[in-house]
From TrEMBL:
SUPFAM superfamilies with a match to the protein in the record: Homeodomain-like, Regulatory protein AraC
InterPro entries (alphabetical): Homeodomain-like_sf, HTH-like, HTH_AraC, HTH_AraC-typ_CS, RmlC-like_jellyroll, Tscrpt_reg_AraC-type_HTH
UniProt keyword terms in alphabetical order: DNA-binding, Transcription, Transcription regulation
GO molecular-function term, one example from the UniProt record: DNA-binding transcription factor activity
One protein family per Pfam: HTH_18
The protein's name: HTH araC/xylS-type domain-containing protein
Domain of life: Bacteria
Domain HTH araC/xylS-type: 179-281
Length: 285
């Protein structure tokens, strides 16, 4: 414990100027949940795609690969990953079917604050683990203790600050995985963004029959290849609509849809909003 009685505090030279001029903004609408099953982890990642929330993943047990847009990283125990809004992500190659991953999802007034953490695997420092544990306890007791909501927000922000410090100290970077079937499929999707890829085309690319391709992929990804491809396309569209000024027709083309009509219909079916409405809503956040 820090002994406040013995720390030398310098006298300010200017009593109107101090530190902390940057407006950080507190995390809002915070949720914690735990994933202990490989099946639930993989299938839920397909379902929850159309939000603008930040996802912080804390691996407490069981290594796995996480696929992020065009990258693949390995997340090991006592490591964290912060996923920005609309970034494609999926999990594969878990060491066992049982795991212990803690998730914290939230909104930030300035999502750019966590941009330095993009695509970085970060060691969870003792200090970050402590503030994370305190945030979780405050979250669980939020309805029983006065001011717990304030504590949750402050402690989640403290954890983010400590993750940023650890990322800087350790120069945490992604590393490419080359021998995973999900990674190989991702590269096919990346290299042919303007083409309507069918399972038959992808299977032929790997010199496999369609049935064998489906089986091999599901064994690794935990979801069907068809659902995975569609999820990838929708995430691509979400990111392009939120972060670029491309026309909706260009977004449809780059996301791999055969026509604007097909894109608009599928996008609304999966997200609940037409592409143009989604873009307007995102720009207001």
């Amino acid at each position: 414990m820090i002994n406040l009685r013995t720390i030398e505090v310098p006298t300010p030279t200017d009593y109107l100027r101090g530190v902390g001029n940057e407006s950080l903004g507190l995390p809002q609408n915070i949720l914690f949940f735990r994933r202990t099953s490989k099946q639930v982890l993989q299938q839920e990642s397909i379902k929850n795609r159309s939000h603008h929330r930040i996802v912080a993943v804390f691996n407490l047990e069981t290594s796995a690969y996480i696929h992020l847009d065009h990258l693949e990283v390995e997340l090991r125990p006592n490591e964290a990953l912060v996923i920005p809004p609309h970034q494609f992500h999926h999990f594969s190659n878990l060491e066992t079917t049982k795991l212990n991953w803690l998730f914290c999802t939230f909104e930030l007034e300035r999502p750019s604050y966590i941009e330095p953490l993009r695509n970085k695997v970060i060691p969870i420092s003792e200090a970050a683990m402590q503030s994370l544990g305190e945030a979780l306890n405050a979250y669980i007791n939020e309805r029983q203790t006065p001011h717990s909501t304030d504590e949750v927000q402050a402690l989640v922000l403290t954890t983010l600050i400590r993750l940023k410090k650890a990322a800087t100290d350790h120069s945490a970077l992604y590393k490419i995985i080359t021998d995973d079937i999900v990674s190989k499929v991702n590269r096919v999707l990346i290299e042919t963004p303007n083409i309507e890829l069918t399972i038959a085309v992808i299977a032929d690319n790997f010199k496999l029959s369609e049935s064998r391709m489906r089986t091999v992929f599901r064994d690794s990804a935990g979801v069907s290849l068809g659902k995975y491809i569609l999820n990838y396309k929708i995430h691509t569209a979400l990111s392009l609509l939120a972060n670029t000024k491309l026309a909706v027709s260009e977004v449809a083309d780059q996301a791999g849809f055969t026509s604007l009509q097909a894109f608009s219909r599928t996008f609304k079916e999966k997200t609940g909003l037409p592409p143009s409405h989604f873009r307007k809503k995102t720009n207001l956040i």
